[in-house]
Each structure stands twice: as C-alpha cells, then as structure tokens.
Design a protein that fits this description.
The protein is about 65% helix and about 0% strand. By secondary structure, it is mainly alpha-helical. The two termini are about 30 Å apart.
C-alpha cells in the first residue's frame, strides 16, 4: 500500500481526472470515478513497476490484472464494434 500511496503522490494527473486520496485503504469508501482512476491509472503504474521482474506467479497476476483493466476500458467506450466485442471477450478469457 505504501508504494501505491507514494506513486499516487508523485503522479501528476490532468485536471479533468478525478482525484483519489493518497491515503485510501481497503476500507475506504471510494466513488465509482475514484475507483476507476485508482484501478486504471494508479495501480497499473505501481504494479508494473513492482512486479515486472518478479517471479512467474506475480507476473501472471500482473498480466491478469492488466487484462481486467483492458476489458474495463473496452467496456466503458462510448461506441462498440465487432472488434471491440472480440477484444473484450479475449481480455475476459
């Protein structure tokens, strides 16, 4: 958690991105926008940095998390296409 909080403090986000408290915890009540920012920006920054050279299990967890984030990204697009459906299905598998 400390690594995530430190990275959050050091990350400059555009003004249009919802802010998340640098001291959130697993018991914090975050809005949907805050959870989205945490999971799609802050966690990938930290997890990639921490786990890119880790053991095989941690690399697999990172790959799984990144697939989940990509599925969320595709699902939240304002338009869809057959290619988007295929991408989403691939990420979810």
């Amino acid at each position: 958690m400390q690594e995530i909080w430190t990275n959050m403090h050091n990350t400059q986000l555009p003004s249009w991105v919802c802010s998340v408290s640098c001291k959130w915890s697993t018991t914090s009540e975050l809005s949907a926008d805050q959870t989205h920012v945490l999971c799609t920006i802050h966690l990938p920054i930290t997890l990639v940095r921490l786990w890119h050279n880790a053991n095989d299990r941690m690399k697999a967890l990172l790959a799984n998390f990144m697939d989940l984030i990509n599925a969320v990204r595709v699902a939240n697009m304002r338009t869809t296409s057959p290619g988007d459906v295929e991408s989403y299905t691939t990420y979810m598998h």
